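Let us begin with a simple case.
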Amino acid sequence: MADMVDAGELGPGKVFLYKGDLLSVVDIQHNKTAMAKMKHKIKAKNLRSGAIIELMIFSGEKVELAYLDKKIMQFLYSDDSFGYFMDKETYEQVELPKERITWELQFLAPESDVTITYYQTEILGIQLPSKVTLTIVDTDDNAIAGDTVNKASKDAVCDTGLKLRVPMFVKNGTKIIVRTDTGEYDSRA
């Protein structure tokens, strides 16, 4: 039996089902006037679509709490349609449609670990570490430093296909640390 709770018991980070949508509370405000029931204005993220929505739920209305599972899995490879991941304990493999993980694939070298979030058997997405180590495979090693006042940089391509700007001293074959939230160079590895 699923846990049913009053909407007023929700708080930031709680995940619940509402009208078939799987929602995660971002913010909640409680509003009580003398003439009306308590209202809960909830700002929530739809975990399936990524959309941020706002709802108004009255006190006394029940919602069903949802529990998410997380597994650390190893990225194997990707093809034209899917990215393939393997559970390191059971060796079970799962595939995710490439269009759902386009951003994340830029940071995934084969055999790197990621956290995959599940709701029951449905895969909601993957969570990358905040920084990853990648190798530069294409940059102009003969670039000449010019404007050093404004952090001179040049274009580069990593082994995963990620294109970014790097400092002038970075050469082909250099291992660098990249931020996964912005896709920007952080430091040398």
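The second case is a distinct protein. As before, the sequence precedes its structure tokens.
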Amino acid sequence: MPLIRPFAGLRPVAGHAEDVVAPPYDVLSTAEARVRAAGRPWSFLHISKPEIDFPEATDPHAPEVYERAATNLQNMLQQGILVRDSEPCYYIYRLVMGEHHQTGLVAAASVAAYDSNRIRKHEFTRPDKEDDRVHQIEALNAQTGPVLLAYESRADVDTLLEALTDCEPDVDLRADDGVGHCLWVIRDQALIEQISSAFDAMKTLYIADGHHRSAAASRVAANRPGSEAAGWFLTVIFPHRQMQILDYNRVVRDLAGYSADSFLVRVRERFQLMPSAVAVHPQGPGNFGMYLAGQWYRLLIHPELIPSDPVGRLDVSLLADHLLAPVLGIIDPRRDTRIDFVGGIRGLPELEKRVDNGEMAVAFSMYATRMEDLMAVADAGEVMPPKSTWFEPKLADGLVSLVLD
């Protein structure tokens, strides 16, 4: 079974991409999606978050909500806003955010490769979130939210993808968040075969973001045993060295009964602690920033506490195992309401604000997880702690979709 294959993508017609593309369904709340889609009848949010077309009290998982998504998709097809390519293609996708850019491949990836762990995961999934994606795929008979994958960078493949962008893109737009999205359609059969061969030679691919979408695709395929088309899922695959992971910071509501001074004593048991006159953005593994009572500190974990296993040595694990759990009593960060997580895109001032206004007692700035660490965890068959990675920039929904027929 090939690892990937081209497909006839469902895309906005020329001139309508800016009207259609939207942020991923899972980075906006329903309220935020309502605002973003206001006055935009062709926004893909009407398909990816169709509850915005119902009264505010509507259950987003009600059957009629998924039915509305299908109705909205059919309306966009009938109005000629979305059209399907006439033949299987690959698509080169470039994301640009400030000085950062990354160039990858939009492809249909094999569910069988996912099921056999050739496409590797690093997170647990929640059944309710899987159910939501299964219902969405079944209602639309399409996969509209691409899974973000990575391959271990190879000079020949990286160069090939970059070379295919040496012409005007078919789509070139800047979203309302300032991120640029460019798309090149690859129809040439010789190039398609070259791309397929290059990727099929790879030992593995890694899920960076989209574990629930991947798991849902596997379930849909299992529910359609006679459907060859259901054996593939929508992906965008980037070289790992181009991918950008931002820090995923932590804020905690209270000090578990400690005063600020007694808390600092406990922190010093396992960390070197140095006050800082400026906000601390950690510059390497094992380094942390801490904001407490209006003061920043630089934390450096004692080296002998760093284990060798790929999960235990992660900074998110070190902070959890040596401070959050033993000192602050946060044993299960997935469920403990005393802890919250702040994506690095919001910056360190967001941490200061949430402590200074009294909402939180202490904040921790993190060094961003490295792609090599994510890949090592996946290769070991392990899972990362919750909120370990924050990828930027985000893929757009609606730029290319995969129809299951």
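The longest strand covers residues 100-110. The longest helix spans residues 63-78.
Keep these points in mind for the review questions at the end of the chapter.
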